[in-house]
Amino acid sequence: MDLSMDELRVFIQCSTNQALLVTDDKQRIVMCNSALTSAIGKCVVGETLIQAFKLYDPASKLHNECEKASKTGRVPKLRISVYGRVRESEYEMFRLRAVDTGETMYLLHIKQLLSKEEPTILQQFAGSLMKDVNLGVLLIDADFTLIDISDMACRVLGLNKNDIINTPMDRIFSSVPLEHRLVQPSLLEGVIVRNHAVSWTNNRERYELLLDSNLLKDFMGRTVGAYVIFKDVTNLRSLEEQVQRSDRLAMIGQIAAGTAHEIRNPLTSIKGFLQVLKNSFVESGMEKEKSYTDIMLTEINRINELVSEFLLLGKRKNVNFDKMSVTAVMSEMLPIINNEALLHGVTVQYESASDAPQVIADREMLKQVFLNICKNGIEAMTEGGVLSISEKVDMDERKVHIDIHDTGPGIPNFVIDKIFDPFFTTKENGTGLGLSVCQRIIHDMGGTIRVASKGFGTTFTLCIPIL
Ligand SMILES: Nc1ncnc2c1ncn2[C@@H]1O[C@H](COP(=O)(O)OP(=O)(O)OP(=O)(O)O)[C@@H](O)[C@H]1O
Ligand SMILES: [Mg+2]
């Protein structure tokens, strides 16, 4: 058969369901089509048959074998290695002459290479990655549409696979503000990420993820899509944070123990003499001076409260653990919470657990936790906001969950990691001790505090073991 090189190229590229290649008579592969490339996962142009398939027979010998076989009615077969696995494949081989160069060429058609029944190692590897319980995988095409997603990614991201396959990524994550999205469209422009730490909150839980992404290119170097792989490192991160926090708390404890009394003693005498002064002002009718002493006394009380919280953070105070119902404690606090809400023009909704579970706690401390967290929620909202408190009992885990949700602006990602740190505050008059004290109290009860916030509204969840 006489063909020009261009005609040959067009011919093999048009045969999309046959694995075809062309070699010169020195065994070097000069062309291969896309069907072959996708079946073996690489382009073999420029390689020899030995390099590409560990096929040691020269093309001329393969051609002779093929001719002989067809004359005797046998099916010609060759042994090739694909992905390290040796297989016998039927083949056809034709000798050609390139009319433009005069060279002898061989056209090789490898049969059954495209057969689906036997997955290649690469396909098996891809399949097991998608099922790996520890790995989140997202496969995206060049139009930024989701092509496949692993089971673990669905679970962590709170998505249902059937609802999102072949859906544009923008639509899947449309409820999340652009800057908080797990995958950015700029990925397809080559903005790939490595070891990128992301916090993700699905409907129930907050996860710390470590994310890698990269582009997928075809053998011509064109971008055909991208993939994202992530691992859940929540436990690792919280362990790391706990160690850091314990270090900080231990340090604060030492300072607190050393200085708290030294601060309190002079305060007591200042307070005593101020009260004497106040009485003298009252007796001599000096109203203005009396009002100054009132302000000074209020401020001294504030310092006293601060020092008490400081002490609570640093070392264990005498605690009175007792059996009590969470609902009863919350109900006791409700008038105070409602009062605070009224001042800010927000409403409070409370849904108690019907079967009021008993927990072991220090009543005053538990009240302090409820008040601190509700106060934070109320302070975060503008007029018209709603603070919803709801209790749920999980008999399997033997825990009561108390969700305290506000409709405030939420907590930005760069702040959320710090809110439990002592002295971290974004408020002009805040001490930043509220949440760290709450965390210490709840941890001492064997419980946990979690926070979920995605740019609108915040939910603090307290989990307390029940009896
Ligand atoms: N519900 C919430 N919505 C938005 N931000 C919050 C919420 N709860 C806490 N925060 C953030 O966490 C920070 C720390 O809270 P924390 O209760 O420890 O201290 P504070 O409220 O600032 O001070 P204090 O409790 O002494 O008044 C707050 O300053 C605020 O930025
Ligand atoms: Mg607070």
UniProtKB/TrEMBL annotation:
It is an enzyme of class 2 (transferase). CDD domains: HisKA, PAS. GO terms for molecular function: ATP binding; phosphorelay sensor kinase activity. Keywords: ATP-binding, Kinase, Nucleotide-binding, Phosphoprotein, Transferase, Two-component regulatory system. It comes from Paenibacillus contaminans. Residues 258-467 form the Histidine kinase domain. Its EC number is 2.7.13.3. It catalyses: ATP + protein L-histidine = ADP + protein N-phospho-L-histidine. This is histidine kinase.
